[in-house]
Write a structure and sequence with these properties.
The protein is built from ten helices and twelve strands. The protein is an alpha/beta fold. α4 runs parallel beside α6, α8 runs parallel beside α9 and α9 runs parallel beside α10.
Length: 315
């Protein structure tokens, strides 16, 4: 990202305009995933030790079947995966070097996205109140690992890191904002400080409405919000807020209320409005497409109507 760029940023696929190259870490050489089937149910594990299950043909990812830390008695001996091993960043370094003119983005998870699976979500939310000492210990260990991953991304040539944590419901935060500030804000601060100390930007995705903690996120150092539903906030209100916080918006046309309508004029009008409201801030807007159009019932040409507006420098 740069100050006072001559145009808005672009992150579009299928041969369209794109200023970004995003990568994750390479697979582990020492861990081999397991996958097995019982009837119409497929089971598989992940590198953290969680076991998942999904209905074949109905779900891609599925749900947690058996979390790695189903019993807190296992916490003391639980081993985190070696996600920060330097060799797992060699491919990212190569890709970055092959794309010198693009913005280099390294992806990782943040503590909530990881720990909610390690305990299973319904237990994890109870743990925030009932098992605070254990939760704090787990969060600290995971955050320390992520700090090392951020360092390795910087060594590989990243310009920024990207993480996704879905904190919002349709109209409010998933948990009490004060609880978020007490437990998660210090973790975010640690990770953002680590990134900024290495001259990396921090880009955050969240679904839903997170207005209650926007000020906190700006305070800890989030540089850019990746929202797929900007309409939840009202575009004018969101533009005013992000201008106040000096945070960039990274977004498609709203995937909930606008793109699925298939209404060409509405989609084009919304794209023009977003470009005017956020793009006028000299670096305040990155336009993108949504990654799973079939999943939200959107035809590719509907998405392309927005793209045509975003890239037309005359509109």
């Amino acid at each position: 990202m740069m100050s006072n760029p001559p145009r808005i940023g672009f992150d579009f696929d299928r041969g369209r305009r794109n200023d970004f190259i995003g990568v994750g870490i390479s697979a582990s050489a020492s861990w081999q995933p397991r996958r097995w089937q019982e009837g119409t149910i497929e089971y598989y594990d992940d590198e953290w030790g969680n076991i998942w299950h999904r209905i074949i043909g109905k779900s891609q990812k599925g749900e947690i079947y058996e979390p790695a830390l189903s019993d807190w008695a296992d916490l003391e001996t639980y081993k985190l995966p070696n996600l920060a091993a330097p060799e797992r960043f060699l491919e990212a370094k190569q890709i970055f070097q092959q794309n010198p003119d693009l913005y280099h983005l390294g992806s990782l998870d943040f503590p909530f996205s990881i720990c909610r699976y390690l305990r299973k979500l319904e237990l994890y939310f109870q743990d925030l109140y009932l098992e605070r000492d254990k939760i704090d210990l787990l969060h600290d260990r995971v955050t320390s690992l992520l700090e090392e991953m951020i360092f390795q991304y910087a060594k590989a040539g990243a310009d920024g890191i990207f993480f996704a944590e879905d904190w919002g419901l349709q109209d409010r935060l998933m948990i009490n904002p004060e609880l978020w500030r007490e437990i998660f804000k210090p973790l975010y601060l640690r990770l953002c400080q680590r990134a900024h100390s290495l001259n990396l930007h921090v880009l955050m995705h969240s679904c839903g409405h997170i207005g209650d903690i926007m000020d906190d996120l700006a305070e800890v150092g989030i540089n850019c919000f990746q929202f797929d539903q900007p309409g939840l906030y009202g575009l004018e209100r969101l533009a005013d807020k992000l201008k106040e916080l000096k945070i960039c918006l990274f977004s498609p046309v709203d995937i909930q209320k606008v793109l699925p309508t298939g209404d060409r004029e509405l989609i084009r009008s919304e794209a023009k409005k977003m470009k005017a409201l956020f793009g006028e801030r000299n670096g305040g807007f990155i336009a993108r497409n949504y990654c799973d159009l079939p999943g939200i019932g959107v035809a590719a040409k509907w998405d392309h109507w927005a793209y045509e507006v975003f890239v037309d420098e005359q509109e």
